[in-house]
């Protein structure tokens, strides 16, 4: 029998503790090494895969698709940069950048691009563009976060090909943009044209661009919402409403026109680095309130005989399966307003960029 003194016990216990800690540290070091090795292998495989995808014409998004389908692409296109693809071409004057690249690659009919993980087809040929726009195969589009938000989670312009898309197209073709409706609004356009002539013929110095912008807004308000204004009017209430509307349009175009990196890079989906989601959340309530007030005014007013019904009256008159809910009406009216208000962006674009 061996009896250990307290001092000996403490000493031997210390050695045992030291050996135990050393063994644990050794295990931890080995675990760290294994983790580092796995991470290096993963990054190496990811890098090789990214390079393989990038090597395909059109960039990484096309490469990933073609490798998964075991196909080859006959559409030429720039490779861009691994992972982000050709998103750099969308900075600045995107239309000029794309035209320059298409010409250099002799790909004016069709050119493949990668915007992050999104496959894109570009055409600079009018006949090819006509075929694409008339083909149901190109009806579905990648969902754009800003459009989805600003169109009240309906995103009419980005709605998938199906019953909802067909119903909206039928309403637009049959009621909103039919020849009868266009012909009936001819008197509106004539009156606005006469107002433009009077505004430009005053003899004083006038900025033509400002007059045309204001006239285009008046035309849109009259056709879509039934609001009639005079170009030379000094009515404070109408001027306030027009300023509010102009602010909504400009803010909306700014959000829709930005290249949202979160739309094309999945690892940014949970973030909002450009503030687009936040901007949409602020703008949507303003648009909803503005358009809903106009709908309620039309609904509560007594019916009157009009030479041409505005879009609000047309939508309120729909019955049966064509009848739309109020949120759908707000979305339809707002997207039509955006289409008609394209004059705003054209005037700003022509002055600042050309």
Structure description:
By secondary structure, this protein is an all-alpha fold. The protein has 2 domains: 60-137, no CATH class; 146-353, Cytochrome p450, CATH 1.10.630.10. The chain is 62% helix and 3% strand. It has 15 helices and 2 strands. A two-stranded antiparallel ribbon has the order 1-2. α10 (236-257) packs antiparallel against α12 (276-300). The chain is elongated.
Number of strands: 2
> Judging from the principal axes of the Cα atoms, what is the shape?
elongated
What is the total number of structural domains? 2
Biggest β-sheet, characterized? 2 strands, antiparallel
Spatial arrangement of strands, main beta sheet: 1-2
Strand and helix order:
HHHEEHHHHHHHHHHHH
Mind telling me the C-alpha Rg? Answer: 31 Å
Measured distance between first and last alpha carbons? 101 Å
Helix content: 55-70%
**CATH topology value of the largest domain:** Cytochrome p450
Oligomer category: single chain
Measured by DSSP, the beta-strand proportion falls in under 5%
The low-pLDDT segments are: 1-12, 347-354
Helix count from the secondary structure assignment: 15
- Quick check: average pLDDT? 77
Defining key terms:
354 residues, Cytochrome p450, mainly alpha, disordered N terminus
In short:
This protein is an all-alpha fold and 354 residues long. It contains 15 helices and two strands.
Walk me through the topology:
Elements (H helix, E strand, L loop, with lengths): L5 H49 L5 H10 L24 H11 L6 E5 L2 E5 L3 H8 L11 H6 L12 H14 L2 H6 L1 H15 L7 H18 L10 H22 L3 H4 L11 H25 L10 H6 L9 H15 L1 H12 L1
Antiparallel strand pairs: 1-2
